[in-house]
């Protein structure tokens, strides 16, 4: 823990952390030592980790990288924080992110952009960019993230680490600042599939305080991982992913090489089709902003968060608190979402998007009748330069063309490193599994690694 805290201080230029908590970390580390001395150590006892600043932490500021929550100190821990603490981990602080998890480059943070440790002129991806950079730079061995449309997998890919988005409902959302509740899911970020399995073991499980959390036994992920054989594993490569427009040649080359390696290891690699995959991004950018506009209505300047100076009346208080407290991207989402939900437009946008969401889900269900795992790129390019897409929301949204469909379908998926492109920038291989098949997914990733 002490070494991790020193590394974090030395790497301050990465801007990976919003809040560092050395005092409580050292106290937790001592408690972990004592547990170890009593012979009560588990695999995570004393392991320093960092939480994305979207997870509520009792007594520790939780800002969601927004001016709106700049000084918000929650009175309770998120389920994931509670579980990982009970497993013996030591929390060293809260990582930077895109504001309210809206973004793919970590540039929308009120606390400034995060830099990619492989190239400090490049983005680390987002929205869990601080967690990704912290793990990639070796500051901590593991961190937590959340993934609504790719926010664990895409930054994992761009920083050369491993990241898992579990099945929707596998991990409780209790105590996570809500972005789009039907898509949000928490997951681990670390350097290998095996580490992800160890972390997921303690993060998964039923919790009554999240009504969408599924009551289902948690298997032994490491055992399932070890029992997975690449020989005979049926791996599907979606034609639509390989032929998608705007995919860099170095990425498609890296993914073809990864598919070849899986085949050489005995997997049966075959082409499959997800005919509606191309509709995922437009569907997401109706559903996610609609849910966000509703979730973010709680930030009214009255109950918690930022409040403007000297409001003239209640309406002025609402308007200026929200106008000054939220950043540009968050406001864009609220406006799009409010519009899509308005009377008269609801059927044309929100209802239609829900129907197409079902088609996307059905594509996957059909695919999993003939394959065990789906493989493809995590992101269409390697890490791009800071500022390159910051003024072009549509280009930024396209960073998630391969990750978003998975959230719409509620499936588990992970990203693992698959070599490097030009300029030494990491490429990520995405593996997608069927519902609650995390063990086999981790096994496939482990076998590949
Ligand atoms: N980049 C996507 C967005 O901006 C996904 C973000 C996420 O998964 N939290 O909405």
From TrEMBL:
InterPro entries named among the record's database cross-references: Amidase, Amidase_CS, Amidase_dom, AS_sf, GatA
Gene3D superfamilies given in the database record: Amidase signature (AS) domain (3.90.1300.10)
Enzyme class, UniProt record, top EC level: ligase
Pfam families per record: Amidase (PF01425)
Swiss-Prot/TrEMBL catalytic activity: L-glutamyl-tRNA(Gln) + L-glutamine + ATP + H2O = L-glutaminyl-tRNA(Gln) + L-glutamate + ADP + phosphate + H(+)
Function: Allows the formation of correctly charged Gln-tRNA(Gln) through the transamidation of misacylated Glu-tRNA(Gln) in organisms which lack glutaminyl-tRNA synthetase. The reaction takes place in the presence of glutamine and ATP through an activated gamma-phospho-Glu-tRNA(Gln).
Family the entry assigns: Belongs to the amidase family. GatA subfamily.
Subunit: Heterotrimer of A, B and C subunits.
Stated name of the protein: Glutamyl-tRNA(Gln) amidotransferase subunit A
Gene name per UniProt: gatA
